[in-house]
Amino acid sequence: MRDHFEIRDHAAAGRIGRLEVPRAGVTVETPALLPVVNPNVLTIEPRRIREEFGAEMLITNSYIIRSTDRIRDRVLEEGLHEFLGFDGAIMTDSGSFQLAEYGDIDVTTAEILEFQRRIGSDVATPVDVPTPPDADRDRAERDLETTRTALADAEAADTGRMLVNAPVQGSTYPELREAAGRHAAGTDLDVFPVGAMVPLLNSYRYADVIEAVTAAKRGLDPDCPVHLFGAGHPMMLALAVAMGCDLFDSAAYALMARDGRYLTVSGTDHLAEMEYFPCSCPVCVDHTPAELREGDDDEAERLLAEHNLHVTFEEIRRIKGAIRSGTLLELVDRRARGHPAMLDGLRTLLDRTDRLEAADPVSKDAFFYTSHESARRPEVRRHHDRLARLETPPKLLVTESKPPSNHEYDAVWRVKPPFGPFPRALSETYPLTAETPDRTDAAAQTAAAEGVRRLAETSPDSAITLGHAGWVPEALDVVPDRVDVEDLRDLGR
Asked: Is 284 known as a binding-site position?
């Protein structure tokens, strides 16, 4: 058990949690965004990131500090919090990113952890090896062995009250990610970043991100706080939370601003092409795109970075609200309409409905059917699994319409796409109170037919009749032959 991380609420595989950071003396509520602060270039002062944007935690690079003569001694003397002017929790990276970029760094795990301890880091990182996507398997296995050695060195180090990251690597090999997660969870380390994600995120390979994270989480324990390294675009944060990630670090707010790019929850716009700002953050209310284009370049970069940070923190708060209200998957569905790659990510997430169903609460405020992906949500699977618990009469009608007053059946149940059949007494229970469109699509009808099939399988002694309102042929093909089928549109003709 990891007593420094407490899960308070769930939706899908997402959760609201409390991460205790003992060296900082603070508790960070997750999901949490950690803005990346370059110790050499403070685009936005860390004090402002804390006071104006509400950041409880940030991340900076201890390797850069250690390698930069003009700031190293000052940070050692003042301490990291004083140097940055930040009184929240501070995580430090170890130089693993530089290792991935340049092939070698002149520091060991023991050395960099000791340096992180001396400068006052609250969450430290060993020197793991971020294996890039699509690397050959031999390399991935070799790199993973090196990372395991780094985790062993981190366990052996005197880290005091610092929390220590246990990165989970494995490239794009799910079985290696799972094994790495299991190994990391078996250590006495504290936070579990899924590493080498930046190349996938930058290439919009969200389906592959889902595969890597899902595999890692199969190996990790449920109470392991999971950090998705390099994830900071607001467009994909809801998806990342829904798959069970708790911490995110964003350099995107500053890097995008440097290139004149404006972040939104549905993608990235270019300042040079914008006529209006759609946002209501202080930057967008007080300025126009033309004013930023025509003003000082450094000022425009800073203001764009501020907007990018505002919209990203706003999305984190929106995600927390969606977890509380049980509408996280609806939010993910809306975000998935912003980019085809996001839709690939959502569909890959829903391929793992069994894992979502295990974590998803059995009751929420509402279920909204917003697209055919809604037919694959964990609530639908859970309803189908529970049909075996129901006692069925000898002659049963399941129908989308009201039954005739003089029917010959022992009982009449409702059938509602995408859930399928259920006794009318359950009509006011979640998720059968779902808001669904009057014009159901093929996916909802097929899911409902799957429910009819499951009921027929678990009730072999009942004669079942299905009354449907014009279901598509592919849905009717799912219904077993032993179920009598009536198209309600034909009645009375």
From this structure: yes
